[in-house]
Design brief:
Blueprint: H1 7-13, E1 18-19, E2 22-27, H2 32-44, E3 51-56, E4 62-68, E5 70-71, H3 74-85, E6 90-93
Antiparallel strand pairs: 1-5, 2-4, 2-6, 3-4
Helix pairs in contact: 1-3, 2-3
Organism: Maioricimonas rarisocia
Protein name: DUF493 domain-containing protein
């Protein structure tokens, strides 16, 4: 994901506060799933683990993580995207 959605687009297409779905694909190395979950928790300053699921590719090289945190506003969505973009091993983010 080269370009983040705008605040205007997020506010027009999502209701806040509410759940927002992030899909993150990365390498299976170095606890990628845990780092995705931790990045979201850190950005939200939350002790609670957000709802998430994961699926590893048939070859075992990549993992897809779907994470659905409760967010208060569009700005939090953008902050989470920025934090996720910094993860080592990231392949795709949407």
């Amino acid at each position: 994901m080269d370009q983040l959605p705008t605040i205007e687009l997020l506010e027009a297409t999502h209701q806040f506060p509410g759940r927002y779905v992030f899909k993150v694909i990365g390498t299976t190395e170095d606890r990628f799933i845990g780092r995705v979950v931790q990045a979201v928790r850190a950005e939200l300053a939350s002790d609670m683990e957000p709802s998430f699921s994961s699926r590893t590719t048939a070859g075992g090289r990549h993992v897809s993580v779907t994470i659905e945190p409760e967010v208060k506003e569009a700005q939090q969505v953008l902050a989470i995207y920025e934090r996720l973009r910094e993860l080592d091993g990231l392949v795709m983010l949407f």
